[in-house]
Fold:
Amino acid sequence: MLHFSDKFFRREKGPEILLALAASVSILVTIGIIVSLFSETSGFFKEVSVKEFFTDTKWTPFFRPAHYGIAPLVVGTMLITFIAMGVAAPLGLASAIYLSEYAPDKMRRLTKPVLEVLAGIPTIVYGYFALTFVTPIIRTVLPHTNVFNALSAGIVVGIMLIPMVSSLSEDAMMAVPNSLREAAYALGATKLEVTLKVVIPSAVSGIVASFILAISRAIGETMIVTLAAGSTPKLTLNPLESIQTMTAFIAQVLLGDAPFGSIEYKSVYAVASVLFAITLAFNLVGTWIVRRYKEVY
Structure:
């Protein structure tokens, strides 16, 4: 006959094991991704040298002679990310400041759902929006702009990221205790001074984390850049030219442009490994910043 404590132990141990297994799923998936990526990447580097991959300035896997220098894809990805953050960071942070510090409750309840609608729009719709609406406007102002260009794609990726930056930054600012605001007002500070000198510095870890997450999202964006930025792997910083990002190349090859098992097909895994490493690096930096500058109230 079991004692009460034994029954209680078994009744509690079962759910604990199930929860531990559920928590381990993400770890197992991550390990599976790493193994699948790097096992195929090793096959690619048996035929292409690591030095050529990281130092060659041409990416032409479908031409002869073929070049496998990833620099044009990395530069194209970073160009899109830089433009996107130039749009998302100021607009998202400004939206968060307004919703957190200035907007009445009724306006906040109305504005937040409208912003969040942007996050629910499929990225392929954003891609067509960039190609058919934003690009013609840019070409009206700058006639020499290519139909497929980095500027249009970057702007629309930035628009897509505004809800993410705004929502996370607002949550960080709303977590700042009102006592800090009231103390600043008591010293004669204006609302703008309280916002810029008290609230934002107190919420800086959450704001920076939202920026890091947005950067990671911009780096991994596929459909917008595939439709609007083009498929020309060119080593350029001119946003008016057609470029190709790492994700766009992966999408191009996996749509059937390369035979299975060929060196061109294996190059997808090499590019994906670099993309994974870059995104992981940004996430690690974001985690460190949050832990380093996090304020506990």
About this structure: The longest strand covers residues 59-60. The radius of gyration is 24 Å.
